[in-house]
Design brief:
The protein has two domains: about 45-175, TRAP transporter T-component (Serine Threonine Protein Phosphatase 5, Tetratricopeptide repeat, Alpha Horseshoe), CATH 1.25.40.920; about 200-329, TRAP transporter T-component (Serine Threonine Protein Phosphatase 5, Tetratricopeptide repeat), CATH 1.25.40.920. It has helices at about 1-20, 20-35, 40-45, 50-70, 75-100, 105-135, 140-145, 150, 160-175, 180-200, 205-220, 230-240, 250-260, 265-275, 285-300; strands at about 310, 315-320. It is globular and about 60 Å long. The chain is an all-alpha fold and about 325 residues long. The longest helix is centred in the middle third of the chain and has 29 residues, at about 105-135. The protein has 15 helices and two strands.
Length: about 325
């Protein structure tokens, strides 16, 4: 009996040792499910904060924590989406926005921040694209053959967040560096992803998909598919979807179409609407509202950088010096 007990214990210990990796992965998968499941999440804690500096200091740790979990369970779709989208959000809110708010005499620092933002936009996009390619293994081949509609057809409503964030990171990376021709020629792929979002869930995230298209059609030159009328139509849809509470649509139209058309009256009006919103009215988007209002104030304070007035004909506005599409610097 003693020998049998000893043998049984040894076998159990050996099995436990052999299964240690599985037990660890089970625990990590459980934690990942809790972090990315329904209900309040870490991103809600960040997005509802009113102190951008506090969030900006905390997010890098959260990002690397999520990424370390993902390395252990790379097939966890929810964790992959959360990690990729956090990289894209961080790049936008705390790198590109910070660069936009810096004065012109700190150009070297601005360019360093933009380069970092581009890198993280693409890192987030690529993380999420892994999940999309698992769902459609011939996606890359279809894109190479320019079969854009066929490439996104397999995706279902549950895939909308993946589609949205992959496209958002893709286009943001191009917008920050429009001289990257490799990214430029790939933009129809990003557009196809977001068009699929429109087909599956046009009201996704309170009209976020429409705000994307304001920036997309409003910032691209005409020869690449830019279309101010389409941008304005998506602006109307974005405002309707959010009930006018999402200030990002107003900022997007002002920083693209209003600038392109040199419509200074519209530019002022849209930015004043951004500033008029109470950040506490929608706690879930409090951080985004605070950051948008910072951008709006800087644009208004430096309005002469974007609109040139002809002294011989007061009120007549001409094209400002060229800048990056949709830029605010």
């Amino acid at each position: 009996m003693k020998t049998r007990f000893g043998l049984t214990a040894a076998v159990a210990l050996a099995a436990l040792a052999a299964g240690g990796c599985s037990i660890e992965k089970f625990a990590i998968r459980k934690a990942a499910g809790m972090l990315t499941g329904p209900g309040p999440s870490g991103t809600d804690v960040f997005s509802s904060d009113n102190d951008p500096e506090l969030v900006g200091d905390a997010l890098p740790f959260a990002l690397k924590f999520y990424e370390s979990l993902l390395a252990a369970v790379p097939d966890h779709e929810g964790l992959r989406l959360r990690t990729g989208s956090l990289y894209i959000m961080y790049a936008n809110a705390f790198l590109e926005t910070r660069a936009d708010l810096l004065p012109r005499d700190r150009m070297e620092e601005k360019e360093t921040l933009r380069a970092r933002a581009k890198n993280l936009y693409l890192r987030g996009r690529d993380m999420i694209m892994v999940s999309l390619e698992r769902k459609n293994p011939i996606l890359q081949r279809q894109w190479r053959e320019r079969l854009y509609a066929e490439a996104v057809a397999p995706f279902a409503p549950k895939d909308v967040p993946l589609l949205y964030w992959a496209a958002a990171g893709w286009v943001a990376a191009y917008a920050i560096d429009p001289m990257d021709m490799e990214l430029a020629v790939s933009l129809p792929r990003a557009e196809a992803l977001m068009n699929r979002v429109l087909e599956l869930d046009p009201g996704y995230s309170g009209g976020a998909v429409h705000t994307f298209f304001i920036l997309y059609y409003g910032s691209l030159p005409d020869y690449m598919g830019g279309d101010t009328e389409k941008a304005r139509e998506h602006f109307r849809l974005a405002v309707a979807a959010s009930g006018g509470r999402d200030v990002s649509a107003f900022l997007a139209l002002a920083s693209t179409v209003s600038l392109k058309e040199q419509n200074v009256g519209e530019f002022r009006s849209l930015l004043e609407k951004v500033l008029a919103v109470d950040p506490d009215a929608d706690p879930g988007s409090r951080l985004a509202t605070v950051l948008s209002q910072r951008k709006a104030r800087r644009l208004l304070e430096h309005i002469d950088d974007y609109f040139l007035i002809n002294d011989r004909a007061p009120g007549q506005y001409f094209e400002a010096p060229p800048g990056r599409p949709g830029g605010t610097s």
